[in-house]
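Replying to the earlier thread about multi-chain prediction with a worked example.

Input:
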Amino acid sequence: MYQSTITITLRPSILDVQGKAVELGIHTLGMKEVENVRIGKSIQMTVNAPSEDEAKRITEEACKKLLANSVMEDFSYTIKSV
Amino acid sequence: MYQSTITITLRPSILDVQGKAVELGIHTLGMKEVENVRIGKSIQMTVNAPSEDEAKRITEEACKKLLANSVMEDFSYTIKSV
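Result:
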């Protein structure tokens, strides 16, 4: 059994309005040192696969088919045995 | 200058309805091996701090005051010099 941790981020060229709003909020709280806030998703899931390669294949298929929008988002993942 | 990467996850005892919906979607696509999908946020930001300790302090303050809901969510972060 494997634990996949997927991070999905907006591509750098895409304007992150949610990030801009959060950045403004952080500045309003007095933390002017913070810049370039970008917000993405972090997805954890368990994959019942017989091997790490198979767990990778399933994770990648889930990202491509459902979790990430390949036009606007990039994804990366790590897999560990549990 | 430091790059903070923050991961915010729902506490394990909190029902993740968004995760359940995504899990159903993944199963509908035929990937029955996937279980326990939980969805959190991943936040990247640049911190203009003179030292790593100061960058940590600012990141933690932003998490506690704004980014994470301490009743329902846990946060973790990594900091690297850029």
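Helices of chain A lie at 17-28, 52-67.

Feel free to reuse this layout for your own posts.
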